[in-house]
């Protein structure tokens, strides 16, 4: 960052919507922007600019401002210090507000009239969604860790299976929605605004469970419904440990605008902040993108390869060290990818037509323990939530290995598994994992996929299986970039459950694989010697972090327990944020999270997920605290939700509410 560039911060301003609702914004301006207007970068999210994201926002938007852009951070309606109530993700109201914000920004004296949309996760989602509405003020988008398909590839469902991240994420937003606005910003009406949110924001988990198939609810704001609606340049970014890496490849393939893809060795974080692998000068990359598309300055963006990707090298599943290298693909899909076919034989993956047991069938009915060491569907860049040694899972799965490889093999793209399969229940689940097995037999998961077989013909109209009938189905595993070293083996493991990453089927099912109809297609990368190598992506840079004091460090922990006396098996997750004191606004705040996923005696009706969030705020004599608790269980016929919300003004409980909901299972 240029040390001579000065930045002015407008700590708070109101943006008024046509219905009178006022949204709270913080703005970072380059000095002199009122006399020499600049493009603006908007990040529009519900994560509380005044506390939860205050430090991160200043580091990012201060950097943009120091490089000639107005950084604008707006709290969604009903979040942070903005008026109103937030009732769900990506509602039309949110998008309408977003369009109005873009108009407001473009009309400001410090703005040149051009705006870029920027954001991670929620902000990445609505960046794509707003772009599809074609606002004239919008010049370009950088979307990080987002999805183009809200049903098939988001935190809620995967392959027609319910992700337990659905419960975890619903509980996160339950906690966020319970938080009060800041009295220092909104004044005496803070308590009235708070009570309105507590009463009306609702139980999002209930709503999401009422839509178990890909209906109009999920199609709304899924930009895959019409990629051609996006008419501005898009940079799509994710990490291999993130839950959203597949989106990057679909956007590169289907968008018809200038586009760039970046997937690195990170989790669900911005690439200058994320782990577990090496970070980069991501904000510098953003400024190059903005300079090109918002200012018309040639920064060489046109000469960048379409995709820059981190190729993982062999690594231990027990050590967080990440090794690998950056590779480039000029186009996606790439002509450098050639699919190799493997047949499934008893215990083996056989290249070509080497199988001799043509008519053999193998069966599996996995214990619920398969998945306890799978890690989180979407890693938040903590080594605690990454998958462990897959040998801990393989005992409950059908396992197929190649012979030791005679040469290094690079995979890049999506693995496709063709199955000829039958089940003894009308609803059944299949999970497939691809692992790198080193000469010491340690198994590192490389990619995975899960499929609800009732969704074998699509997610719009699932149909029960006919027990015993053979079905042919294709399932795609997540995109992958992995180098398998000479002497290593490639392992495919198939199980009938994957708990607690995915909620189990209504009852245990026995799967039968009819091997003559099973194939594994691996995306082998054979790059010519003259394939370009990406330029150095640099070391992370950011604006200075505002003054603060760390009062208590973050605490992250995952622990698997098996109580042999009660035969209860549980995964306990601790995910406590640091407790911080922000000096500028004299605010102390923190968040404690406990999650527990359990079952007893391998009985499906005992499967249980529980998440408790505690959030607390303090300034002088003022303090507020909320506690949200959500419990999800199931029977063969229904999901059962029990939830409570308690809010405290000082030591006095000022609000309490409980929910007891039943949602019928719909082929799930």
From TrEMBL:
Q: What InterPro entries does the annotation carry?
A: AB_hydrolase_fold, CocE/Ser_esterase, Galactose-bd-like_sf, Xaa-Pro-like_dom, Xaa-Pro_dipept_C, Xaa-Pro_dipeptidyl-ppase/CocE
Tell me the domain of life.
Answer: Bacteria
Protein's UniProt keywords contain Cytoplasm:
no
Q: Where is the Xaa-Pro dipeptidyl-peptidase C-terminal domain?
A: 287-544
Q: Does the keyword Heme apply?
A: no
GO MF, one annotated term: dipeptidyl-peptidase activity
Instruction: Read off the Gene3D superfamilies from this record.
Output: alpha-amino acid ester hydrolase ( Helical cap domain), alpha/beta hydrolase, Galactose-binding domain-like
Record's keyword terms, sorted: Hydrolase
NCBIfam families linked: CocE_NonD
PANTHER family the record matches: COCE_NOND FAMILY, PUTATIVE (AFU_ORTHOLOGUE AFUA_7G00600)-RELATED (PTHR43056:SF10), PEPTIDASE S9 PROLYL OLIGOPEPTIDASE (PTHR43056)
Supply the name of the protein.
Peptidase S15
Source organism per UniProt: Thioalkalivibrio paradoxus ARh 1
Species classification: Bacteria, Pseudomonadati, Pseudomonadota, Gammaproteobacteria, Chromatiales
């Amino acid at each position: 960052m240029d040390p001579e560039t000065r930045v002015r911060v407008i700590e708070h301003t109101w943006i008024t919507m046509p219905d009178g609702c006022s949204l709270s914004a913080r703005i970072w301006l380059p000095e002199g922007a009122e006399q020499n207007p600049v493009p603006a970068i908007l990040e529009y999210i519900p994560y509380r600019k005044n506390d939860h994201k205050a430090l991160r926002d200043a580091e990012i938007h201060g950097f943009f401002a120091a490089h000639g852009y107005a950084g604008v951070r707006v709290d969604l309606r009903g979040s942070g210090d903005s008026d109103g109530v937030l009732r769900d993700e990506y509602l039309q109201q949110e998008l309408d507000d977003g369009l109005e914000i873009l108009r407001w920004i473009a009309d400001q004296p410090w703005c040149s009239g051009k705006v870029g949309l920027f954001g991670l996760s929620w902000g990445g989602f609505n960046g794509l969604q707003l772009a599809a509405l074609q606002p004239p003020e919008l010049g370009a988008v950088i979307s990080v860790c987002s999805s183009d398909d809200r049903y098939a590839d988001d935190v809620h469902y995967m392959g027609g299976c319910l992700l337990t991240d659905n419960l975890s994420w619903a509980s996160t937003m339950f906690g966020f929605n319970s938080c009060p606005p800041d009295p220092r910003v909104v004044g005496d009406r803070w308590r009235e605004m708070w009570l309105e949110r507590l009463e009306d924001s609702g139980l999002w988990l209930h709503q999401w469970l009422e839509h178990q198939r890909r209906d109009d609810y999920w199609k709304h704001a899924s930009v895959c419904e019409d990629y051609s609606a996006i008419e501005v340049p898009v940079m799509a970014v994710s990490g291999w440990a993130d839950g959203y890496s597949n989106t990057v490849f679909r956007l590169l393939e289907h968008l018809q605008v200038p586009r760039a893809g970046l997937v690195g060795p990170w989790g669900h974080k911005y690439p200058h902040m994320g782990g577990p692998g090496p970070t980069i000068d991501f904000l510098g990359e953003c400024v190059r993108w903005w300079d090109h598309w918002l200012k018309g300055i040639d920064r060489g963006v046109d000469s960048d390869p379409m995709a820059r990707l981190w190729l993982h090298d062999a690594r231990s599943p027990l050590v967080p060290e990440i090794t690998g290298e950056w590779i480039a693909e000029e186009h996606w899909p790439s002509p450098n990818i050639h699919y190799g076919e493997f047949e499934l034989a008893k215990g083996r993956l056989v290249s070509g037509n080497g199988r001799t047991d043509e008519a053999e069938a193998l069966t599996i009915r996995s214990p619920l323990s398969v998945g306890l060491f799978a890690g989180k569907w979407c890693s938040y860049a903590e080594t605690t939530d990454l998958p462990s040694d897959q040998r801990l899972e393989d005992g409950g799965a059908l396992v197929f290995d190649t012979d030791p490889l005679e040469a290094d093999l690079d995979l890049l793209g999506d693995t496709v598994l063709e199955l000829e399969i039958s089940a003894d229940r009308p609803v059944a689940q299949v999970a497939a994992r691809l692992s790198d097995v080193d000469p010491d037999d340690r198994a590192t998961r490389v990619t995975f996929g899960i499929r609800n077989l009732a969704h074998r013909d699509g997610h719009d109209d699932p149909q029960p299986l006919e027990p015993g009938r053979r079905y042919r189905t294709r399932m795609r595993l997540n995109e992958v970039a992995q180098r398998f070293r000479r002497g290593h083996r490639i392992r495919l493991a198939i199980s009938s459950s994957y708990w607690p990453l995915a909620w189990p089927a209504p009852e245990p099912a026995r799967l039968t694989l009819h091997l003559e109809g099973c194939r594994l297609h691996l995306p082998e990368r054979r790059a010519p010697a003259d394939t370009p190598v990406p330029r150095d992506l640099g070391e992370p840079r950011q604006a200075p972090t505002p003054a603060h004091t760390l009062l208590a460090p973050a605490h992250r922990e995952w622990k698997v327990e098996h109580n042999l006396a009660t035969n209860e098996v549980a995964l306990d997750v601790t995910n406590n944020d640091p407790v911080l004191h922000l000096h500028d606004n004299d605010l102390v705040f923190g968040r404690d999270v406990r999650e527990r996923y359990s079952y007893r005696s391998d009985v499906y009706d005992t499967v249980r997920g529980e998440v408790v969030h505690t959030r607390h705020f303090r300034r002088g004599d003022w303090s507020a605290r909320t506690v949200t608790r959500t419990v999800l269980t199931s029977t063969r016929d229904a999901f059962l939700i029990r939830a409570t919300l308690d809010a405290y003004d000082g030591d006095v409980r000022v609000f309490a509410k409980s929910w007891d909901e039943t949602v019928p299972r719909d082929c799930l």
